[in-house]
Design a protein that fits this description.
Elements: H1 3-19, H2 30-39, H3 45-55, H4 61-79, E1 81-83, E2 89-93, E3 96-100, E4 104-108, E5 113-119, H5 127-144, E6 149-154, E7 159-161, H6 169-207
Parallel strand pairs: 5-6
Antiparallel strand pairs: 1-4, 2-3, 4-5, 6-7
Helix pairs in contact: 1-6, 2-3, 3-4
Length: about 210
Amino acid sequence: MSGQRGRINIVSEQRGMYLTDDPRVCGFYNPIRDAMRRAVNSTEPELELKKAVMAANRTGQPRAFEEIADGFLPWLAAFKATGVPVEGTTYRAGELTLKVRPHLGLRRKDGSTHAVLVHTKEVPLTREAANVGLRILQHTIADTLPGATPMVLDVRRGKAYQMPKRTNLGKLDVLIAAEAMGYVTHWKLSGLFEAMQDGQAEAVGKVG
């Protein structure tokens, strides 16, 4: 959902993470997500986020974690919820199989529950992209947190999205299928292009 250039960068980045043996490439936001999960059941949520900020040791992590904490803590205080467990499952769109596990399960004082995907990136989340995440949560909610309301949280900005009532879900499913097909095709062609480049480099090496 990020346009031509964005998709190229995302697929290239994810292929690199998938193919690397270096664990440092993955999990940039995992410590702050873990802190958020602890925070929702803590009497001192600020302390949980502060611990993650203080422990951040990768390039860009301290600033990113601070911005996430600055957005998340006021939102959590206003939303007034505690954490509940969520389960993982899978969702299949054509040839693409997605692992789906909400980052947060929340219960409000009235007993209502929410399954929350958290957007942590610096680039703001768009309504169109949020709807894709919400629809995938809708399809999988019976397995992840039955009876919950799906939510996507743009955490740096403290802005939560829920599915608009007038959304045409049929068209949204078509969009998701098309995006999944484009992603798979791009992934396959990127691999083919990389193989061709490797073959050309090997040939040049032999000639040299």
